[in-house]
Amino acid sequence: MDKKKVTEKMSWGKKNRIRKIIQDDGRVVMLALDHGYFLGPTRGMEQPRKALEPLLPHVDSLMLSPGILTSCVEPDFKGGIVLRSSGGSSIISDDLSNEGIILKPLEAVKLNASAMAISIFIGTKYEKQTLMNLAETINEAAKYEMPVLAVTAVGKELEKRDARFLALSSRIAAEFGADIVKTYYCENFEKVTSTCPKPIVVAGGPKLETELDVFELCYNSIQAGAVGVDMGRNIWQNEDPGAMVQAIKAIVHDNYKPKEAEELYKELKNKK
Ligand code: R5P
């Protein structure tokens, strides 16, 4: 996606924030580590500061909760910061979609955030509530020229990840005014990207079987029009997270093919 087109109608402040996330080539490697907001100390992210060490030099942006930002990332971090701003349910609660707003735009400004992230749960009992979370955040964030990233969440129902559902959710997020939409890769992904007028980043979901599966997901997402990835578990639950993030970066920014990225991954891993 042409970066200029993405930001041309925005104010200087919003453009500047978006450009901390989406880079000069119009692409982004965003590392997602906000999982603890409903999953607690997830495998691979038990100690965020330690887990981040090999990853920080290779990512454009982080997506995380305010508490992990302030306790595990040094203030000299130069990349984009996307703050988890909705939440309120845990993995052991009845319904993950029962979310409210957990961070207000002024607090995000104080933390020098580049964007706020709000989940929407389309087709659930709390659909309206989560859409109102998005609407309220977009309206309030506009006062500070703070971008909002909408997450098309599926909760525990991973089977929902098909083009019809994701196109519906992504389009609704864009219609509400989200600046970036985070969704999942799926078969016929062009249906999702072509009907959503805002930049799309893809999540990885639960850990895939092989590294090549992850590289194919990244490559196919970009080919189908995504501007990059906002990925977590398939990076930091890997045997070698540092090699994994560098191989993904090569796909996103250097147009590596999946097999080339796999070779790079193996090379980096074997160096140790
Ligand atoms: C989901 O809502 C979380 O906010 C994660 O940021 C998202 O699922 C991306 O991480 P992963 O690649 O592990 O799915």
Question: What do these coordinates show?
Answer:
It is a single chain. The strands form two sheets. The chain has an eight-stranded parallel beta barrel with strand order 1-2-3-6-7-8-9-10, surrounded by six helices. It starts with a helix and ends with a helix. The longest helix has 15 residues. Helix 10 runs parallel beside helix 12 and helix 12 packs antiparallel against helix 13. The mean pLDDT is 95. With 272 residues, it is α/β, with parallel strands linked by helices. The protein has one domain: Aldolase class I (TIM Barrel). The structure holds ribose-5-phosphate (R5P).
**Helicity range of the residues?**
40-55%
The tally of strands reads 10
Q: Kindly provide the name of the CATH class.
A: Alpha Beta
Structural class: alpha/beta
Number of helices: 13
Order of helices and strands: HHEHHEHEEEHEHEHEHEHEHHH
What is the fold-level CATH name, i.e. the topology? TIM Barrel
Any ligands, ions or cofactors bound here, and which?
Answer: ribose-5-phosphate
Domain tally: 1
